[in-house]
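in:
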């Protein structure tokens, strides 16, 4: 299931049609991943290791949809760990935030979330925190439908993350999360695409690639 059949793309397709085709296909593949539990555990571990030693207090994430990896269990542990590991970190209070769509601007704002937080559905039917504080994450976990070389991300095509990152100052560190099976070798950045600073998968750090 890790290997998609790249040879069998209907041709000819322009770049936008090709992306739309692979979006559908990657989401369908993801929704029927046979070894999801093992992959979830692996990716949670990769996240935890990646975050060790970082000083972020506000971390942005997402409420998983369409078979996306769920980042919230690992983040909840990150939040709880501060209470036992480091009294100073606990006072600084680590916080988790989820995206809320600004329909007019086509961008995302981040609202504080905590387990049991009152939620409501956004325009896409995705649960979002109801009336909690707006915050500025310094670290942002970004869901990927697919990912390519160089930190390029394929999303659902709304352009929300690209538009948000084009505007957010200071810019948060961006970390894409994906199952390793979502690698798209031919994916090229478009002019508006803001590359991710890192990409984590159930197989480890996919970007940046070490050795130099
Ligand atoms: N979990 C999660 N939350 C998120 C995002 C995300 O990628 N994942 N977003 C990241 O931006 C924003 C929501 N963006 C989304 C954009 C499109 C679709 C979607 O279902 N699109 C339809 C086509 C809709 C259309 O174009 O008319 C589809 O893919 O079938 C969903 C979410 C904010 N919240
Ligand atoms: N900075 C920007 N300013 C204006 N429009 C943008 C910007 N970034 C992206 N867009 C528009 O958004 C549309 C979707 O972009 P793209 O296909 O890269 O979405 P995506 O990254 O896959 O989606 P999402 O971020 O919602 O998951 C593009 O047609 C593009 O014109």
């Amino acid at each position: 299931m890790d290997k998609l059949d790249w040879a069998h793309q209907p041709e000819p397709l322009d770049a936008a049609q090709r992306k739309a085709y692979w979006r559908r296909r990657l989401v369908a593949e993801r929704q029927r991943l046979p070894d999801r539990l093992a992959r979830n555990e692996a990716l949670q571990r990769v996240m935890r290791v990646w975050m060790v030693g970082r000083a972020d207090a506000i971390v942005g994430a997402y409420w998983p949809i369409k078979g996306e990896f769920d980042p919230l269990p690992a983040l909840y542990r990150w939040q709880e760990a501060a209470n036992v590991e480091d009294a100073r970190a606990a006072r600084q209070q680590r916080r988790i935030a989820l995206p809320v769509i600004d329909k007019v601007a086509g961008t995302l704002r981040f609202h504080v979330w905590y387990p049991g937080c009152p939620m409501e559905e956004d325009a896409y039917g995705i649960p979002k925190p109801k009336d909690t504080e707006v915050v500025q994450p310094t670290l942002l976990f970004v869901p990927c439908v697919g990912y390519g070389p160089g930190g390029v991300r394929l999303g659902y095509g709304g352009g929300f993350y690209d538009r948000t990152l084009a505007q957010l100052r200071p810019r948060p560190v961006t970390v894409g999360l994906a199952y390793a099976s979502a690698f798209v070798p031919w994916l090229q950045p478009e002019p508006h695409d803001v590359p991710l600073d890192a990409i984590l998968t159930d197989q480890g750090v996919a970007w940046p690639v070490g050795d130099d």
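note: The chain has five helices and twelve strands.
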